[in-house]
Design goal:
Distance between the termini: 19 Å
CATH architecture of the largest domain: 3-Layer(aba) Sandwich
Bound molecules: glycinamide ribonucleotide
Strand order of the largest sheet: 3-2-1-4-5-6-7
Low-confidence stretches: none
Number of strands: 9
CATH topology of the largest domain: Rossmann fold
InterPro entries: Formyl_transf_N, Formyl_transf_N_sf, GART, GART_AS, PurU
Order of helices and strands: EHEHEHEHEHEEHEE
Protein name: Phosphoribosylglycinamide formyltransferase
CATH class of the largest domain: Alpha Beta
Shape: globular
GO molecular function: formyltetrahydrofolate deformylase activity; phosphoribosylglycinamide formyltransferase activity
Pfam families: Formyl_trans_N
Largest sheet: 7 strands, mixed
Catalytic activity: N(1)-(5-phospho-beta-D-ribosyl)glycinamide + (6R)-10-formyltetrahydrofolate = N(2)-formyl-N(1)-(5-phospho-beta-D-ribosyl)glycinamide + (6S)-5,6,7,8-tetrahydrofolate + H(+)
Radius of gyration: 16 Å
Number of helices: 6
Helix content: 25-40%
Length: 200
């Protein structure tokens, strides 16, 4: 069974969905550890409730490298095979990415390559798109540029508000992440250049 770590910065609804899928037996992996760079991230409470080791690693007043060194120590301690970025709002250094090459996945709240950055839903909305969605991708050294594992489409409705659009989008995220993690854990993903081949 693969050991996974979930890195968060906030509310942790994606983390919750991963916990729930594991509990329901729909996702077979060991959620070994949760790490947050924010002390008040509600995701830490969710992890503790589920009895998963949870760490707050403050990024303030230390260099990016020092911060990541502390995280990597924890990942090593728990023999982590896959690092899942679930609303982790920090950019990883090339060192971290090389250390876990092709073993870090991120969820982004837009259909990449459109609207990379910190406000995928807001940017999709402001642009007046007719479809939005989310993307799960491997993390490479660019910002939201790694090979795409899967995408879910969220068409906009005439009566949508940004809030209603986001709410539906998050629901899709909660399906997409466990799906992608399952594919990784079953060894069904193969990166070929920009493409991720998914075997049956
Ligand atoms: C999610 O919408 C996720 O896609 C987004 O942060 C939110 C975290 O929600 N991630 C990014 O924007 C990464 N650039 P959650 O804490 O409730 O899972």
């Amino acid at each position: 069974m693969k050991n996974i770590a979930v890195l968060i910065s906030g509310h942790g609804t994606n983390l919750q969905s991963i916990i729930d899928h594991i509990k329901a037996g729909k996702l077979k992996c060991n959620l070994a550890v949760v790490i947050s760079n924010k002390e008040d991230a509600y995701g830490l409470v969710r992890a503790k409730k589920a009895k998963i080791p949870a760490y707050f690693i403050d990024h303030k007043d230390i260099s990016r490298e020092e911060h990541e060194k502390k995280i990597i120590e924890i990942l090593k301690k728990y023999k982590v095979d896959l690092v899942v970025l679930a609303g982790y709002m920090r950019i990883l250094t090339p060192h971290f990415i090389r250390e876990y090459k092709n073993r870090i996945i991120n969820i982004h709240p837009a259909l990449l390559p459109s609207f990379p950055g910190t406000d995928g839903y807001g940017d999709t909305w402001k642009y007046g798109c007719k479809v939005g969605g989310c993307t799960i991708h491997f993390v490479d050294e660019g910002i939201d540029t790694g090979p795409i594992i899967l995408q879910k489409i969220n068409p906009l409705r005439e009566n949508d508000t940004l809030e209603s659009f986001k709410k539906r989008g998050l629901k899709l995220e909660h399906q997409a992440f466990p799906e992608a993690i399952k594919l990784f854990c079953e060894g069904r993903l193969k990166i070929e250049g920009r493409k991720v081949r998914v075997s049956k």
